[in-house]
Amino acid sequence: MKLELKSPANERIGIHIPDEVANLSLPFNGSFATTDGDEYRVKNNIIDMLEQDPEFASIALSTNHWKVTAAIYEELWRKRSLSLLTGEDFPIEKEHELLIDWTAPQEGGLYLDLGASTALYARALKAAQPKADIVALDFSTQMLEEARIKAEADETDIFLLRADGRDMPFFSKTFDGIVMGGTLNELSDPTKVLYEANRVLKKEGSFFVMHLIKSDAWYGRLLQDSMGLGGIKFWTKDESNDLFKQAGFRVDKQITRGIVCFSRLLPN
Ligand SMILES: C[S@@+](CC[C@H](N)C(=O)[O-])C[C@H]1O[C@@H](n2cnc3c(N)ncnc32)[C@H](O)[C@@H]1O
């Protein structure tokens, strides 16, 4: 038994999630009750720690809860996006290489894909280290359902967890590594989520973040300003690093290509 969740209702109570829940070739439905009597449902292997849908602070966030966005997101946008945004040939394999190189998932380790959407990073980590356990967390059921389809097709066993990154149902220092691709720009409260990431990361763990920074070009700024109206935020590299610092991280490695920034953060 590898995954232990913290009860949202009582922070002293743990909920043990059996390994079978991560075995996506066998549908798992049921519920887990805490010793306090709180119950959390598991539907089709997706552990639901949220009783209701979160309130959407932006258009960008609400579209992630549409089935159609979840279905087309990875094929139509995600796999091509970095070549478009970096202005160079940047295939998804190159991003995965960096992710694995900087995260170095270990046998027996536990890793979190934070704001996972269709669990692209979670699946890449599991493929690189089949003996690690991976949790893909998102607050969109639609995205997690799509993640389930993709992970099952890849024969990748991962835990799928519906929870809010602003208040994660994990005890402090749970994870050996956290990865977060493209999510920072979409968060309604990035400081809170980064702070939570710092809390649940082990002292010797690392945090891989891919996010978009402010464009230098006037036309890029114009586009980013209009995206700001939909709730997407952009910072300069220095502003991003201030944000990381405020949440208790230091930058260990960082690469920027066009407006795409990859960081390896370590807790202070
Ligand atoms: C840009 S997408 C992530 C893309 C994905 N990580 C990848 O590499 O393809 C952002 C995701 O973060 C999720 N999200 C945004 N705010 C969240 C929060 N507070 N808690 C959990 N998930 C959140 C959204 O539902 C969405 O699926």
What are the SSEs and their pairings?
Blueprint (H helix, E strand, L loop, with lengths): L2 E4 L7 E4 L12 E4 L5 E5 L2 E3 L10 H5 L3 H20 L5 H12 L6 E5 L5 H9 L4 E6 L2 H13 L5 E4 L12 E7 L8 H11 E12 L5 H12 L7 H10 L2 E9 L2 E8 L1
Parallel strand pairs: 5-8, 6-7, 6-9, 7-8, 9-10
Antiparallel strand pairs: 1-2, 3-4, 4-5, 10-12, 11-12
Helix pairs in contact: 2-5
Bound molecules: S-adenosylmethionine.
Name the features.
single chain; 10-stranded mixed sheet; alpha/beta; two-stranded antiparallel sheet; 8 helices; 268 residues; binds S-adenosylmethionine; Rossmann fold
Which superfamily, in CATH terms, is the homologous superfamily? Answer: Vaccinia Virus protein VP39
Coarse shape? globular
Arithmetic mean pLDDT: 90
Oligomer kind: single chain
**Beta strand count:** 12
Tell me the distance between the termini: 30 Å
Q: Which distinct ligands sit in these coordinates?
A: S-adenosylmethionine
CATH class: Alpha Beta
Largest sheet properties? 10 strands, mixed
CATH architecture: 3-Layer(aba) Sandwich
Please work out how many helical segments DSSP would assign.
Answer: 8
Instruction: List unreliable stretches of 5+ residues.
Output: none
- Strand order, biggest sheet? 3-4-5-8-7-6-9-10-12-11
Question: Strand percentage, roughly?
Answer: 25-35%
Decide which structural class fits the backbone: alpha/beta
Count up the domains. 1
The whole-angstrom Rg is 18 Å
Q: In the CATH scheme, what's the topology name?
A: Rossmann fold
